[in-house]
Design goal:
Layout lengths: L9 H4 L4 H9 L24 H11 L7 E10 L7 E3 L7 E10 L4 E6 L14 H10 L10 E4 L6 H10 L2 E5 L13 H6 L5 E6 L4 E7 L3 E6 L8 E7 L4 E7 L1 H9 L2 H11 L9 H27 L8 H14 L30 H4 L7 E9 L7 E6 L14 H5 L5
Parallel strand pairs: 1-5, 5-6
Antiparallel strand pairs: 1-3, 2-3, 3-4, 6-9, 7-8, 8-9, 10-11, 12-13
Amino acid sequence: MFWSNETRFPTVADTMSRNRFDNLRTFFHVNDNTEMLPREQKDHDKLFKVRPFLNYIRSNMRKIHVEEFTSVDEIIIPFKGRTLMKQYNKNKPHKWGIKLFAIASKSGIVHDFEIYIGKGTLPPSEHGLGISGDVVMRLSECIPKNENYKLSMDNWFNSYNLQCKLKYEGILSVGTVRSNRIAGCPLENDKTIKSKGRGYFDYSVDTENKIVVTKWLDNKIVHVISNYKGPLPVENVKRWSVAQKHNVEVPRPAAIGEYNSYMGGIDLHDMLVELYRVNIRVRRFYLRIIYHLLDMCVVNSWLLYRRHCKQLNMKKYISLIKFKSEIAHALLLSGKNKPNKRGRPLSTTPPKPKKRLFTPRPVDDVKYDETAHWPIPIDKKQRCKHCINAYTTMTCNKCNMHLCLTKSRMCFIAFHRKQP
């Protein structure tokens, strides 16, 4: 639609032609396909087509300074095409897509990521934590050790063994955990907790490794495990009561509040990417990955820009859509203002082909409305847009088309008359 007559967008259409854009997208590659190993071989890489691009993006994201509060979560790249990496999750806004694990600061800046490809996502490790725990250990490499940096995660990643490992590495962490991953921690059973009402909690402490497990009843029972935060001090929070039809105060352990306060870094980043996503429909999975990573880089850049504005005490900053449009504008202008070489061109220099000018044709509703189409003589002669054989100086004032209007050629009338 950028190149069509009705919805032409000069910023794009004047920069390159539609055919050039299609050719660039068709032949776009970031790796040499002839060097890709077949699937039968052991060292086959499912992400070979985008591996150099992934490594470059990751290396630049890891240069960003990590904030005190970080979180690990998954991101879904929307994609319904054919690929072995495609996942389905009915609880996500985009149910079909390619999954990647990422670590982000509380402000939404992503510092590292790893695309899930099934077996072989990560190299073999000695942690013995399974893929969920190994992903957290790999992504947490960008966090400074023994400096009170805090990491949160949900129950898909978390476990008692992971908390012990993070404690040993010098990283403070907290997160929800599944009841079968707390190493048999003695806690009151579900029936007893439910009988004591909403807001009741029980906890247990591993005095050897300094790990705290808290079991709390809200709308349902929640398990939280941490290597630095326990249930105290307890604070009251407002919750809606269906029975009483108004908000009531419910006691909440401190570990729950700590988890809720900075777990949303990835969700914030996802929301910002979704606002102005590159929505070019493609069938090749690697192009969808590249487009999504470009969106992530733009969001990261904007969040860094906001961080710098805050450091400089600047209260006003441009919006994300304005920031993204300025990036596009700068890229379109790059390299266009080069100084012209002085002197006459060499005789061996081939002449540049002249760019043809196309006059947009009117839509049929305007062309055949039989209203206010008047022939106007002009000085500039052009080829007739109906017969294409003769040149004329007569033009239609409404359609802006050159048309013959002579005794032998009545193209003006034939052009505006609808054929039966």
